[in-house]
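quick one before i forget lol
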Amino acid sequence: MLYDLHTHSHCSDGKLSPEELVALAKENKVDVLALTDHDTIEGIPAAQVAAGDELTIIPGIEVSSLWGGRNIHIVGLNIDIDSPELQQAVLAQSDIRLARAKKIAERLEKAGIANAWEGAQTYAKGSAIGRPHFAQHMVDEGYVDNFAQAFKRYLGTGKVGDVKSLWPSVTTVVQWINAAGGIATLAHPDKYGLTRTKLYSLLEEFTAAGGKAIEVVSGQQTLAVTQKLHRAAIDFSLLASCGSDFHSPDNRWQSPGIMSPLPKKCQAIWDFW
């Protein structure tokens, strides 16, 4: 069975519709797919319909939180999308995301990026506006050559467009996911630039709040990273998850189902559903 438990559609910052994402996952022989858009569950019903009997859809969400001055993402897997607690959380995050996007736009325009807000709205196409939408605007208007440059100069950690002080705490987000009957999973832990000491401090708070899993594998990564995160899962008795973190078909190395292997000795999250 091929599991991909972290993907995005155009309902947040992905490029494909839920239906297109499901079609690509089928093409890549994925058996179980989680749609985990940022702070929204809008695309899940369409993905479930498109999956039919060929693919199992795990309802999911990737929720933004704040810990130690960093934007930390918590994935909720196997959630009840009709949960009143989850519905309220999504509304709260939507308000925060809108306020954050407007603040990013203000900062970018002061930094010389003209029409940042209008440009991001164009690429969001009615969905929640995120940093990739601002990045696309900057690329197409010639302010930067590519996405990587947009984040390096304007949108990455510590840059002018890095606005994160509005998000709820890790503890609050884990409680939201648990209330919706899901499994709170720490997303792509190696992408936060944490030392081992800080990662373990984060995991202490995460598990104390009721977090149950960690992404041991996120896309294609080195064996050393996989081994480090596998050790962390063991040390905190966490279930192991894996996902491509798919956003765009333009990145062929990050297609649904394309990721490093999960160590055989891991306690896989799907074994406990």
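fyi DSSP finds nine helices and seven strands in the chain.
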